[in-house]
Design brief:
alpha/beta; Rossmann fold; 6-stranded mixed beta sheet; 18 helices; binds pyridoxal-5'-phosphate; TrpB-like_PALP; Trp_synth_beta/beta-like; Trp_synth_b_CS
């Protein structure tokens, strides 16, 4: 390694003669990294002088995918990747121009760097396209042609003020709930924890394609590699981190499938906060191991409805065997937070700040698709409250709004709980006891109790206000699929791809299979991208039901929805 400089500063100009290299330029807050193109030689770890204003290094070997690894005392190591199959387009062939390649924040200054080389990912090597962990979340509100309607106070029906939420959430999350900023910086400590499972793999489902005999190319972004087994820790970790920063000691929440409760229990265990979870009765009974996971991470778990809260007691009085719903469990947790100064509430979906945190999925995926040279034609995700769907789709929607790509974006919901496809778009409460703010969303009515389908995480009466708004703007579409078709797809997926999906993403799989079979008929080789938001290792009773032929398609009752919609607030 030798000192050098761009634009003629420094002494070593060998890259002018066709060599590639790396140059790092310090400024006050970041270290910018520039890359020169050319033949590159493999390098071992090289010390970076701590006071280097800029450094450069030359290599001689022609890679397809260049990896630059940074070792830093604080964060151990970090890697940046550049697919050099893009290099012919780079505008600096020995003319002294350097391409900006990335940057590291100043407090991550590396002490050592190393080059390594990977081959172009071939069809057989698509499992785990490397990429960086994003350092910013993306807020789609900044780019929407029409801003979403405000949330309203549940009693006065006036637009919500930040202080109206302060008994539930820490200040920073309230700010994120209403921000119009396009990007929000992810705190370093959160990025460090993301590193436990992120970046998550983007995988091509080649074996499923073969079974379906389709010309389509199917990709899935797999979030089941997180400690809790789903996308939910992407928001649990920052939510708990912001609470911990504000000195909060106790966190309460609800959980439907058990995935969110596990994620929050995992996150609170990292920061030493107490966690109490109301788990929807149907899932509490179906998923004892989810309860045990939460307890292992130190959380207290109650079945909902419970006799601990006023909201729970009211429901149990009407129906002692009530199977519960997310709306009821939310009421119980919100009630406890509202009545206890030292306790705050976390929500696993629906709200803007939750969707915001999930955009790490899509930001990573855009880079991974680019590295493959692929552009999605159809993007598919299941929707309960909408967070995994938004997490994958919103960054792609930004690209679509900018005219760079034009994928169809499709939400898939259960036929038994079809808020987007059958609900009304109206102001409604987020919970059964009417304690939450009023949100304009697609709703089946806040006291609608969906039949106990196996996808507990999709049994929510409403859709995220942001997704509802985007749906109204015509920027995405929605369909519903009954659970037997979903499990048929899940079995086909498990037997070809190996992974056993959680019941919720089986909806995305079934929709992707429909699309792939459509391609088979039409002969189109579309690129289908789907959100595989969790594994189903603790959902095997659902698979048992299906394999025994005992699963039934639970119905959706229009009459029950109409009865429930009669109770939503009537606004002028
Ligand atoms: C694995 C999984 N997928 C999807 C969902 C639905 O939530 P959302 O629509 O917010 O992604 C849940 C909710 O619990 C879940 O656990």
């Amino acid at each position: 390694m030798s000192s050098s400089g761009r634009n003629g500063r420094g002494g070593n100009h060998n890259w002018h003669n066709g060599y590639g290299g790396l140059e790092m330029l310090h400024n006050s807050s970041t270290m910018e990294i520039f890359l020169g193109v050319g033949p590159i030689k493999k390098f071992g770890w090289t010390h970076v002088p701590s006071n280097a204003a800029f450094i450069s290094t030359r290599q001689t070997l022609n890679p397809f995918l260049l990896c630059i690894h940074f070792h830093t005392p604080a964060t151990m190591s970090q890697s940046l990747y550049l697919p050099l199959n893009h290099s012919p387009n780079l505008p600096f062939k020995g003319d002294g121009k350097w391409k900006k390649f990335g940057s590291l924040s100043r407090n991550r200054n590396p002490s050592h760097i190393k080059f390594s080389v990977q081959e172009t990912p071939k069809a057989t090597m698509l499992n785990a396209i490397p990429t960086q962990i994003p350092t910013q979340w993306y807020n789609i509100i900044a780019d929407l042609p029409v801003k979403p309607p405000p949330q309203l106070h549940p009693k006065t029906f006036e637009p919500l003020q930040p202080q109206d939420l302060s008994h539930l959430f820490p200040d920073e999350l309230i700010k994120q709930e209403t921000t119009n900023e396009r990007f929000v910086v992810i705190p370093d400590e959160v990025v460090d924890i993301y590193r436990l499972w992120r970046p998550t793999p983007l995988i091509r489902a080649k074996r499923l394609e073969k079974v379906l005999d389709t010309p389509a190319r199917i990709y899935y972004k797999y979030e089941g590699v997180s400690p809790a087994g789903s996308h939910k820790p992407n928001t649990a970790v920052p939510q708990v981190w912001y609470n911990a920063q504000q000195g909060v000691k106790n966190i309460v929440t609800e959980t439907g499938a058990g995935q969110w409760g596990c994620s929050l229990a995992f996150a609170t265990s990292l920061f030493g906060l107490n966690c109490e979870v109301w788990q929807v009765r149907a899932s509490y009974d179906q998923k004892p191991y989810r309860k045990l996971m939460m307890q292992t991470w130190g959380a207290k778990v109650h079945p909902s409805p419970s006799d601990i809260t006023e909201s729970g007691r009211r429901i149990l009085k009407m129906d002692p065997l009530c199977s519960g719903s997310l709306g009821i469990a939310i009421s119980e947790a919100v009630e406890v937070a509202a009545n206890n100064e030292d306790t705050k509430y976390c929500l696993g979906s629906v709200l803007n700040h939750v969707l915001l945190h999930q955009t790490v999925i899509g930001e990573e995926c855009i880079k991974q698709m680019e590295a493959l040279g692929e552009t999605p034609d159809v993007i598919i995700g299941c929707t309960g409250g909408g967070s995994n769907f938004a997490g994958l789709c919103f960054p792609f929607l930004r690209e679509k709004l900018q005219g760079k790509i034009n994928p169809v974006i499709r939400a898939v919901e259960p036929t038994a709980c079809p808020s987007l496809t059958r609900g009304v778009y109206a102001y409604d409460y987020g919970d059964t006891a009417q304690l939450t703010p009023l949100m304009k969303m697609h709703t089946l009515g806040h006291d609608f109790i969906p039949d106990p389908i196996h996808s507990g995480g999709l049994r929510y009466h409403g859709m995220a206000p942001l997704i509802s708004h985007i749906y109204e703007l015509g920027l995405m579409e929605a369909i519903s699929i009954p659970q037997i078709e979903c499990f048929q797809g899940a079995i086909q997926f498990a037997r070809s791809e190996g992974l056993i999906p959680a019941p919720e993403p089986t909806h995305a799989i079934a929709a992707a299979i429909r699309e792939a079979l459509h391609c088979k008929e039409s002969g189109e080789s579309k690129v289908i991208l789907m959100a595989m938001c969790g594994h189903g290792h603790f959902d095997l009773p659902a698979y048992e039901k299906y394999l025994q032929g005992a699963m039934v398609d639970l119905s959706f009752s229009q009459d029950r929805m109409q009865a429930s919609l009669a109770n939503i607030p009537h606004m002028s």
